[in-house]
Automatic annotation (TrEMBL):
Pfam families: BNR_6. This is Exo-alpha-sialidase. InterPro entries: BNR_rpt (IPR002860), WD40/YVTN_repeat-like_dom_sf (IPR015943), Xyloglucanase_GH74 (IPR052025). It comes from Microtetraspora glauca. It comes from the Bacteria.
Length: 358
């Protein structure tokens, strides 16, 4: 089994490859000095396509693609992700790139300011999804600590008409008509920063990340600023499943692709300093869809640490579970989090981690 690991950092993209289950070998940096906040590995076509959302600094953000595993990169002749003039908006960042599981050639992009874009040419060029941009609640959307960003895209694995997104600090929205219309879907998600009696609003929740297993698409898991939640009706309603965790604050949440009821989170010390609980790297795993949790740290540093894991800096695939830290370390586990191995160190601040079997 040959596996690819893509690590987007504050200064460049790092690719690591594993052959026949061997150790990951990290290759020289791509896009050196350029921020890479989003990456996707699209394995649907005759050859894998790598997509990278990059930040050119004063030249602005863009999306580039490679069909030779990162050896060469291409960019569309026109800005691939751009707001139409009538919106009066300017693209700040591409936070998410998500190939569609049901529509060949379709790739979704999540942007800042919070917006959804759709590509029909495998991510070369994108167009704005006007239905979400024109949602009547938009004038009341507020930015979270990381900005007004659409950071999660959940396309249904069977029905192309159903798709959901999450934005900070807007909440979870879903569509049943391919993105033409949208509804807020945040029932039972508590927002304690609102006044007493108004802590369960229709929208305005600070959602950090949402995950789904393609074999059980009605079940979603959500990491909130104040809780870990589960839905069994594609976001129609939610219930808190984070009571067994040492902290229900964190950024990433990941579902194991080989175990639909297994998920992973990385708890942080809430709003104290957003560092790991007990200042130790520890990944918590649930094998019963969030009912109970257990922490794992074998192979992770024993000394105190003060670095966090960002919302997209954790992923799971057939090759294992992986996460990258803000101090430039990347760890992987091939036994569902029981033990961990250091893959890379001394990288720039890790923003996103993605993996695929080639």
């Amino acid at each position: 089994m040959d596996a690819l690991l893509a690590v987007g950092t504050r200064k460049g993209l790092f690719l690591a490859r594993s052959t026949n289950g061997g150790p990951f070998e990290v290759e020289p940096v791509r896009f050196t000095t350029v921020g890479v906040p989003s990456v996707a590995i699209d394995t649907r076509g005759p050859v894998p396509r790598l997509l990278a959302g990059i930040e050119y600094g004063h030249f602005g953000p863009s999306v580039m693609w490679s069909d030779d595993l990162g050896e060469t990169w291409q960019e569309a002749d026109r800005p691939p992700v751009a707001f139409p003039e009538h919106t009066g908006a300017a693209l700040a960042k591409v936070w998410q790139l998500q190939p569609s599981p049901t529509e060949p050639g379709v790739v979704w992009a999540g942007a800042e300011p919070a917006a959804l874009f759709r590509s029909e040419d495998r991510g070369a060029t994108f167009s704005l999804v006007e239905g979400l941009w024109n949602h009547p609640t938009r004038p009341m959307w507020q930015a979270g600590g990381g900005g007004l960003c659409l950071h999660t895209i959940i396309p249904h694995p069977v029905d192309p008409e159903r798709i959901a997104v999450a934005a900070s600090a807007v909440g979870f929205f879903r569509s049943s008509d391919g993105g033409a219309s949208w509804e807020p879907s945040n029932k039972n998600i508590r927002a304690p920063f609102f006044p007493e009696g108004a802590q369960y609003p229709e929208f305005g929740q600070c959602v950090h990340k949402v995950a789904m297993h393609p074999a059980r698409p009605e079940r979603l898991f959500l990491q909130h600023h104040f809780g870990v939640y589960r839905s069994d009706d594609f976001g129609g309603s939610w219930r808190d499943v984070g009571a067994d965790l040492p902290s229900d604050f964190g950024f990433p949440i990941v579902v194991d692709p080989t175990r639909p009821d297994t998920l992973y989170v990385f708890p942080l010390r809430a709003d104290v300093d957003r560092t790991p609980v007990d200042h130790r790297y520890q990944v918590f795993r649930s094998d019963d869809a969030g009912v109970t949790w257990k922490g794992f740290a074998h192979g992770l540093p024993d000394e105190p640490v003060h670095s966090a894991v960002l919302r997209d800096a954790m992923c799971a695939g057939e090759a294992g579970v992986f996460f990258g830290t803000r101090d430039g370390e990347v760890y992987g586990s091939r036994d569902h989090g029981e033990t961990w191995t250091l893959i890379a160190k001394h990288l720039p601040d890790v923003l996103t981690v993605r993996t695929a079997v080639l």
